[in-house]
Amino acid sequence: MPKKIFSVLCAFFFIVSCVLPGLTAAAYEPTGVDVSATAALLLSLDTDEVLYSLNPDKKVYPASITKIMTVTVMLESEKYDPDGMVTMTDEVQKIIMGTGSAVSNLRVGEQITQLDLVYFVLMASYGDCAYMAALYYGGTVDNFVAMMNAKAEALGLSGTHYSNPVGLHDPETYTTVNDICTLTKYALQNPTFEDVCHTTRYVVAATNMSAKRTLSTTNFLQDPNTNYYYQYAKGVKTGYTDQAGRCLVSTASYNGYNYLCIVMGCPSNEYRHFSDSANLYRWAFNNFTFKEVANSTDPVCEIPVDLSLDTDFAPLYFKKPFVTVLPNEADDSTILVKFHLKADRVDAPIKQGDVLGTADVIYAEQIIGTVDLVAGESIEASRLLIAVRAVKTFFTSFYMKLFLVFIVIAIIVFIVLCIRLNLARIKKRRVKYVPYGKKKK
Q: How far apart are CA 252 and CA 283, in angstroms?
């Protein structure tokens, strides 16, 4: 591309970046969807773009959404062995008694595999099994809760704190939708966690005290035997207490599109957490498509280059093609790019692929993504120009300036001394010696 075209493009994007109004973090407004939640989020798992957001940093009570963290700590424990056995204890049953939590009816002394325990906690949401896990993996409930909070801190969940592994209401058990989103994306990277989330029915083999039994998911979106069935939805976790309201974290996949939906604080007297989530999924699937905003084969701007005899500018490219989810009606004219170069100028040598800046992709006054800008070609440095700069730098350095000042001062001092000596000699020649007492005739 000719340099003039480069210059025009850079000038255009510079002007756009200067006059663009302040960007907001607000997501799109869903049409035809009445969300009853007090806090919610709809995220594209393909592009990490938030399509819908409602009070994402508001403090909320998680109820059994807590068990996402409980199972995450279980699966990451050094003690976790899917085939290893764990035993229901009298201590667990005493802890859970009177809490109102759902229980599994496992009897004291009954043994199940640790993989079964994951299903009991995450899919069936049994509170006694959450305490069973806490005692087995943490030694004590308090120690296990400390492990949960340590994991929350490690994941950067600054708005989250746990006081129990079940999600029983407590002012000290709280979170935010953004934190739930971060935790869920992390948890889903574990294949076992993901498999459990995708399971609607799970058969537990006969134990030492019971015949085989079948567990069912508490997420009606993925259960075809309910009125809330939504064929594209999977897990992740339901939650409910009077204080938390009805809550749901779920995912849905259709036609190559994958979304994560979180609704918290839905009305307690109805199952709006299911219908709200399904409606948000339908809105996303019907109104958004993948769009390639920019490729990685065409230059998008340039940066001035010093120390090269071959070129004065380096063309910059997107490091990788930028694909995002945008409304169906969006076109190229509604998408802007704002460049952030690392410096006003760069020195050769430059290697192809060197990151020399970033570009924010903006749609509807929102930053929908940031991509690295890289050099499209290698540029060699000129030894002559490097030498010239070195000489120039030497003679313009602070120490050289200090040395020159010293020389100038020395010369001035030398001149002054020379003048004073010459004046003294001239004065001496002018004085005539007359002996004392001898009169002049």
A: 12
Distance CA 173, CA 360 (A): 37
Do 267 and 247 form a contact (C-beta atoms < 8 A)?
Answer: no
Longest CA span, the chain: 154
Model-level pTM? Answer: 0.78
Query: Which is nearest to 113 in space by CA: 87, 75, 137?
Result: 87
Phi, psi of 275 (to 5 degrees): -70, -40
The encoded tokens of residue 142 equal 């308090």
Q: Are 319 and 373 in contact (CB under 8 A)?
A: yes
C-alpha torsion 170→172→177→182, nearest 10 = -120
Give Cα separations from 119 to 63, 129, 135, 214, 229 (angstroms). 18, 10, 17, 11, 20
* Rg, C-alpha atoms of the chain: 37
Angle (CA) 295-301-303 rounded to 5° is 135
Digit-coded pLDDT (tens) for 44-92: 999 999 999 999 999 999 999 999 999 999 999 999 999 999 999 999 9
Q: Where are the alpha helices (DSSP H) in 216-271?
A: none
The three-point CA angle 163-164-167 to 5° equals 105
Three-class DSSP category at 156: coil
SS3 of residue 310 by DSSP: coil
Count other Cβ atoms within 10 Å, centred on residue 292: 9
The predicted pLDDT at position 323 comes to: 87
354 secondary structure, DSSP code: -
